[in-house]
Specification:
This protein is of the alpha+beta class and 145 residues long. It has one domain. Helix content is 47%, strand content 19%. The chain has three helices and four strands, in the order H-E-H-E-E-E-H. The chain has a two-stranded antiparallel ribbon with strand order 1-2.
Amino acid sequence: MDLLKSMKISASGLRANLKRTEAINSNIANAQTTRTAEGGPYRPKKVVFGSEPARDSFSEVLEGEIDAQAQTVHATEVINSDKPPVLKYDPTHPDANKEGYVAYPNINVMVEMADLLTAQRAYEANMKSLKITKGMAQKALEIGR
């Protein structure tokens, strides 16, 4: 695998984990949101990842010479969780139903924080890989002089 392909793989990991971080941040920020524009409580977001062969160049795509082992990752979609809301009794809340229950998003902030740390570590690993590959490319250019 050449350096360019390695950089593309790392960059795809950066983009995917950035999207995941954005979804987690939105979940944490809206953990207590009981009313949204769509109606009802906020629905937690989850990012679905997918992969595809890492393409190196335009000619490689045309000629069909794709390394099946090298895969890039991407966020294929952001979906709303289908978990039912959590009902809490608070008859004084403006969003309480007739029985006095308020529907809150089914978000465990501690789980979201753990997921955020995982996404952050994955982002950092891809950044480190990108920097190492960049350094290798610079050294290769220096040797070629």
